[in-house]
Amino acid sequence: MKRSLYLLMLTILVVVMSELQVAGMMPEIAADLDVSTSQVGLLVSMYALGMAIGGPLLAYALRHSPPKRSLLMVVAGYAVLEVLVPLVHEYWWIALLRVLTGCLAGAAFGLSVTFGARLAATPSKIGEAISIVLGGIMVGTVIGLPLSHLIAGRWGWQTSFYVLGAAALLLFFISLIGLPSREPASQEDAAQDVRNLRSPRLWSRYLVSLLTIGAAYASFSYFTPLLEQSAGFSADTTTLILLAYGAFSLIGNLIVGKFADSHAVGVLRFGHALLFVSLGLIALFADVSLLVLVMVLVVGFAGVTMNPALVTRVAEVGGAGNLVSTVHTAVITMGVTLGTAISAVTISAFGDNPSVAMWTGAVFAAFAALALAIQTRKQTSPVDAEKQDRMESQPAPADSGVRDS
Description:
By secondary structure, the protein is mainly alpha-helical.
């Protein structure tokens, strides 16, 4: 079944690349549409808003459909919307298409994770299967932003949308042939997934995910204008830096994956501290090129790479059913929305200066660390906290959600 898992990973990869493509070509889009950088940044927020709101709604609507059919429908619709974006030249029409594309992307993310869990050889292999599927996040991060930046500089920003639309269409046909068929979730399984969402402890962990990813994207979404306008790097050098950022994200993800199961809280504490310090230094010394370069790589190492630890903490109390996974994706993308939107406002308030977004990210990181500290304040250590979580949750309902929904 690993071949099928890698197909699901490719679905996540395409979704992540679409999410990042606007961030990689902000100057080109802003100049072509005659809008500000902050307005283009809002396109990232609108895509994330679609994922946050439309993703769970689609997942709920498709909860009784066979997973292969549901995923193929979503991927096909995604391909069409991607190709439509460069055919219009009005900012608000593009914004609407990005919202709709985000809705499909959110559903694709949740469906892929749940499908991957159901393709696991045994229940004990579910974590391994999901980790393969989620590998699309890091690979998409490695190539998504720098590739879109390169394409925009060479052939225009519209070409990036044509390329991803064609990639999604190709993925549709490969998945049509390569993905196995599975029965839809039963009424009981779907109901259990819904019941898992009622846990207050689950939502407290969702909050940490929102703030953590918000911290990363409040800054990351504006790295291209920061590197070119504030730090003075050329467009070609910026592409290389963004590629290096993605590579550091991949390395960080591999390291976090080794420790996320037994040391999730410790990983998050360390990551929040690194984010706060590195973003603060970038904001203070945005014109010092070497320092900015190093700190950008640190953000790559400690930003979105915390996702495995976030997923681990959520799965411990809520399982990895379709709705729980999709709502977690929605919460994470709401963090993207809030981070990029608030950064857009602060940038606009301070003369369209992208370095201001670094302060926004630092504040998000501080709030994430505070929320995590409140959740674990009665625990003596991160390991004890995780052991207590497992004892309290008794993950039979969660496991059921992972296997059957």
